[in-house]
Amino acid sequence: MNPSAGGAEVLIDRLLLGLDARGHDVTLVCGGPVTQHHYDVVQAGGEFTQYLAAPLICASRYRRADVVIDVENGLPYFSPLWRRKPSLCLVHHVHTDQWGDRFPPAVAAACRVVESRVMPAVYRNRMFVAVSKSTADDLCAIGVPRSHIRTIESGVDLPPATTVERSKEPLFISLNRLVPHKRVDLLLSAWQLAADRIPGRLVVLGDGPELADLRRMAETIPRVEVTGRVSEEVKNRLLAEAWGIVSTAHHEGWGMSIMEAAAAETPALAIDAPGIRDAIVDGVTGILVRAAEGQMVAAFADALVDLASDADSRRRLGVAARERALRYGWERTIDRWQEVLEEVAT
Fold first, then answer.
1. Calpha distance 102→327 (Å, rounded)
2. Contact 131, 251 (CB under 8 A)
3. In terms of C-beta density within 10 A (0-12 exposed, 13-18 middle, 19 or more buried), how is residue 121 classed?
4. CA 10 to CA 155: how far, in whole Å?
5. In this predicted model, what pLDDT tens digit does every residue of 229-255 receive, in sequence order?
6. What is the DSSP letter of 115?
7. Which residues, at least 6 apart from 113, have a Cβ–Cβ distance to it below 8 Å?
8. How high is the pLDDT of residue 102?
9. In the chain, which stretches have pLDDT less than 50?
10. Cα separations (Å) of 257 from 46, 135, 172, 264, 292?
C-alpha cells in the first residue's frame, strides 16, 4: 500500500478485497506508487497527474465496466464528463476548511469553488456515498440532494486474540496520519498540562509530513513518544494496552482508528468534530470534549486527567465500545456497498 495511505485507502482496499472475494471483477486505477494486491492495480500517474491519466485509462480500457467508483479526496475524477454508464462518487469528507493547509490562498480558493460548486453541478444526476452522517450533512450543505446520498460507514478489523494486559500506568495512544488537520500539536500541548497531574505516557503513532516537527516539539514534553509508522502487531499491542485512544482532529470522514481501539475494548477521548462524533457515542463508548478554541488545550488536559483517574468509567466505556465495534465488521460494509452498487448499476 502507498506509504502515505490512511483510513481512506484502507477502506478502498478492504472494499475491493471483499467484492473480489464475492466473485466481482474489480480493478483499482490510482496514483502511484502502487504495490501488489490480490486484485488488479493500474498506476495512473502521481499525486496530481492521476486526475488526467485515470479518466483516460478508465475511458479507454474499462469503458464496459458496470460501475465506476469515483473516489473524491478533495477533488473527484469528474466521471460524468467522460462516462455515460453508471458511476458514483465516494466522499470521505468535504475539504472546505482543509485547502488552506496545503495550498497558497489563490489555489485553495479555486479548489474550494471546484469542490463546493462545480462538483455538485457535474454530479447532479449521480449517486454519492458518504462514510458518515457528518459527511452526508456536509454534502447536503454544498447542494447535493439528500436523496442522492447513501451513507456507508467503514468496517473495522477485529484484533487477533491476545493475552496482552492493560498498562499498569496511564497510557494514551494517538493513531493518525500526521497532517495539519489532525492537530497533534494541540494534543501534545494538552498532554504537557496533564502530565503535571498524572503519571504515564502518551504515544503518537503514525507517519506524515509533520513527523519531524512533532518530534522536535515532543522533546520538551515529559513522557511522550512520537514513533512514526509501526507494524500492525505493534499497533494492536499498544491499542490493547492503552487506557484510551485520543484524537484532537479538526474533522474526519469516519473515525477508523477510534473503531480499531474500540475493537480492543479501549475507549476514546476526542474533540467533538465531524466524523469523530459519528464513531463515538458520547458518554457510552467514549468522551467528546467541547470547549471554545482558546480553551481547548486546557479542557482536553482536564479530560485526560479525569479519564486516567476513573478506572470504572474506563472499563464501562471500553466494554460498550467493544460491543459497538463488533457490529461494524467489514462484511456489513461490503453488504451495504453491494446493495448500492446494484442500485446504481440497474
1. 36
2. no
3. exposed
4. 10
5. 999 999 999 999 999 999 999 999 999
6. I
7. none
8. 76
9. none
10. 27, 17, 13, 11, 25
> From CA 92, how far away is CA 137, in angstroms rounded?
12
Q: Where are the alpha helices (DSSP H) in the chain?
A: 7-21, 50-61, 99-102, 105-113, 119-122, 133-141, 184-194, 211-218, 232-241, 256-263, 276-279, 296-308, 311-325, 330-345
Alpha carbons 150 and 91: distance in angstroms, whole number: 10
What was the pLDDT predicted at 52?
Answer: 93
Angle subtended at Cα 203 by Cα 264 and Cα 205, rounded to the nearest 5 degrees: 75
The set of cell numbers assigned to 322 is 467493544
- Please enumerate in sequence order all residues whose Cβ is within 8 A of that of 339, keeping only pairs 6 or more positions apart, or say none: none
Write down the CATH number for the domain with range 171-325: 3.40.50.2000
Among 333, 17, 9, 331, CA closest to 150: 333
> Using DSSP, how many helices (H) and how many strands (E) does the chain show?
14, 12
| CB-count exposure of residue 221 (10 Å: 0-12, 13-18, 19+) | middle
**30 touches 51 (CB < 8 A):** no
Return d(Cα 50, Cα 29) in angstroms, integer.
9
C-alpha cell of residue 221: 514534553
Environment class of 150 (CB within 10 Å of its CB; exposed 0-12, middle 13-18, buried 19+): middle
Strands 201-205, 171-175: pairing is parallel
Please tell me the predicted confidence (pLDDT) of residue 5: 58
Intrachain domains 7-155+330-345 and 171-325 with the same fold: yes
Residue ranges covered by each domain of the chain: 7-155+330-345, 171-325
- CA atoms in the 13 A half-sphere facing the CB of 87: 26
Residue 95's pLDDT is what? 84
- Cell reading at 331: 462484511
Which residue shows C-alpha cell 469528474? 78
Architecture of domain 7-155+330-345 in CATH?
A: 3-Layer(aba) Sandwich (3.40)
270 and 280 in contact (C-beta within 8 Å)?
Answer: yes
DSSP code at position 146: G
CB 268 within 8 A of CB 125: no
* Helix (H) / strand (E) containing 325: helix 311-325
Give the contacts of 9 (CB within 8 A, at least 6 positions apart).
1, 2
